[in-house]
């Protein structure tokens, strides 16, 4: 018989409790022993951690003499008319001989190394992007300062602009375009009865129709036979912006000189073309020698309101036409622009915000009538002496 069979139930119960406690104790002791052995092994095997600062060994070569770098001298070879500095920095020469244009004389500058290409420690420091060429970022037209990134000229090319008017207009417009800085955009819209982009070909068919040829496109215009009643047949031409590069302004100068005058006068069509441009212009230079049909002041007010809404400045010029002064002044005043009245004698009145700012005399004296020189009378030949006088004393052969 086994030992367990001889124990009572209570004794068996106590025996089981003792066995369970012994088992738990053995497990705990085993875990502690394993942890202790692990800690000892880690202490023995891991290397000690010391704060060690490595020694840095450097080598420095001997000093090498710096050799100066030869920088290429760049020059922009552009044959353009000299740009005038701003009025606060310029001195104007006054002379007894009157010229077509007042040319400001720049301050005397002692020749030094070029400062426009920078003065840095390395090649290329301070190089500009070309901005500022042409009079501090602006140009002028009949004495008006013209500013903005996008400049639009709306110019009267009607038949009434013949003679002295077209001479003044072509010369001043070419002068203004040639002085545009190369970072500007510009365009020219010419108008008479029809309106067209400068450089287009205008084919007049009497006084009632015209065709504007622009590249491969044609734009038809019609009239009831009156100079002011012109309307486009279909869509209007859309003017693109041009960059004021040297080649482009020279091309525009040729167009200004060669474009022929056309019959009729209508203000509204070219101004509508101006507001069709994308993006809109910053400044519009509007010049005419005639009145618009109907209510010119009303047209000026409506145009001024639209321009002001789009932050467009409109400068106006009335060329030898005092009757257009009210409408042109209204248009300029409503947009913060400047109005110039060029009189028949060549004098100019600059008006801004309803006030005459300055009056400039004629840029050249009025031509005087020169009477044709009288023919010089011919001297009479000395009379021949009679033969009977021969032989007298004092007579010479």
UniProtKB/TrEMBL annotation:
Chain segments annotated as coiled-coil in the UniProt record: none
Keywords in alphabetical order: Membrane, Transmembrane, Transmembrane helix
Biased composition (Basic residues): 376-397
Matching CDD domains: vWFA
Residue ranges of the TM segments: 23-46
Keyword Kinase: no
Region ranges (Disordered): 67-90, 350-397
Protein name per the record: VWA domain-containing protein
Source species of the chain: Oceaniferula marina
